[in-house]
Specification:
- The chain is of the alpha+beta class and 180 residues long.
- It has a single domain, classed as M1 Pyruvate Kinase, Domain 3, CATH 2.40.33.
- Helices cover 13% and strands 32% of the residues.
- The protein is built from four helices and 13 strands.
């Protein structure tokens, strides 16, 4: 199966879930036009309080639809946009990509992955027990965060459901994604 966008979402302001849309427009260096996390500098409220001049490494939140399948099998009711992602993908192991991987989305947009989404307590406020469901541990005790990846927009453009996604891996040694 080829990697594809299955849904796009945005919402003005700072709320947890995002609304499905027929199209979103990515803007280079800023993120998703019209979304509450749009901007060159950090937009997450807790990070703004710490240092409002930090670069915004979380301009675009991507999540794999396979996670929703897994969560539904565990009894959770989740759909695209519910967990705050802007782009829902299918057929791409987002969590296995290295830092700096570039996603070419549709015919125009390019997004560079900056790190893993660090699940926050808002997930449990959405549905009790969901935070634990998006976290796992390896046999050696290492925490696995499955709540999607974050990126910055290198080249803007329209993104719609059905758009193909291709991956460019960075040259040199690959660094695993870490929480941002």
């Amino acid at each position: 199966m080829s990697a594809v966008v299955i849904a796009v979402s945005l919402r003005p302001g700072h709320s947890f879930s995002k609304d499905l849309a027929p199209v979103i427009r990515l803007v280079a260096g800023r993120g998703v036009e019209g979304d509450g996390h749009f901007g060159q500098t950090v937009q997450h409220r807790s990070r703004v309080r710490a240092n409002p001049l930090q670069p915004n490494l979380c301009q675009v939140h991507l999540m794999h639809a396979e996670l929703f399948d897994e969560l539904r099998a565990k009894g959770f009711d989740v759909a695209s946009g519910d967990l705050g992602e802007n782009i829902t993908t299918r057929g791409l192991d987002l969590l296995a990509l290295p830092t700096g991987a570039i996603l070419n989305i549709g015919s125009e947009a390019r997004v560079e992955l900056t790190g893993l989404r660090n699940p926050c307590r808002q997930i449990d406020a959405f549905q009790a027990g969901l935070t634990e469901a998006v976290l796992e541990r390896t046999a050696d005790g290492r925490l696995i965060r499955k709540a999607g990846v974050m990126g910055v927009v290198l080249r803007g453009g329209a993104v719609t459901p059905g758009d193909a996604i291709t991956v460019e891996l960075p040259s040199g040694e690959h660094r695993p994604l870490e929480p941002v």
